[in-house]
Amino acid sequence: MNIYDKINDLTAALKVNPEVVAFRDAANAIKDDEQKTKILEDFRQVQIAAYHESVEQGKVSEETTQKMQSFATVIQTTPEINDYLQAEIKFSMLFEDMMKSINEAVGVDVIGAGQ
């Protein structure tokens, strides 16, 4: 068995996988739209802030919570961003499963999956 042949099989399967296709299409739908890209970048920053507050303070501040709620409204009313985030979640689950399988095959916790 040639491992590189199997890698090529995997990449071919990924190219047509519904989760990958949906994620790629959703990403392409917004990549050239500066406004939507900026909304996503700003949303990510608020997500990171909320995570840090949660870890460091045990709770998310009222200000950050309000920002998250504002972004939720924008995301719900912007189909392309909503589609992107939904596709990203599904792709992330697929990617995580793949990485866990690779980690198990290697037999060493190389990706921190055991944490």
List the helices and strands and how they pair.
Layout: H1 3-16, H2 18-30, H3 34-57, H4 62-76, H5 79-106
Helix pairs in contact: 2-5, 3-4
What does this structure look like?
The chain is mainly alpha-helical. It has one domain (3-102): YheA/YmcA-like (YheA-like fold, Up-down Bundle), CATH 1.20.1500.10. The protein contains five helices and no strands. It has helices spanning 3-16, 18-30, 34-57, 62-76, 79-106. The longest helix has 28 residues, at 79-106. The radius of gyration is 18 Å and the shape is flat.
Q: Keyphrases for this structure?
A:
115 residues; 5 helices; mainly alpha; single chain
Order of helices and strands: HHHHH
What kind of sheet is the major sheet? none
CATH class: Mainly Alpha
Structural class by secondary-structure content: mainly alpha
Compute the CA-based radius of gyration: 18 Å
Q: Architecture, according to CATH?
A: Up-down Bundle
Helix content: over 70%
How many structural domains are formed by the residues?
A: 1
Number of strands: 0
Q: Which geometry do the CA atoms define?
A: flat
N- to C-terminal distance: 32 Å
The CATH superfamily is known as: YheA/YmcA-like
Strand content: under 5%
Assembly annotation = single chain
Query: Unreliable segments (pLDDT under 50, ≥5 consecutive)?
Result: none
DSSP summary: helix tally: 5
Mean pLDDT across the residues is: 94
The CATH topology is YheA-like fold
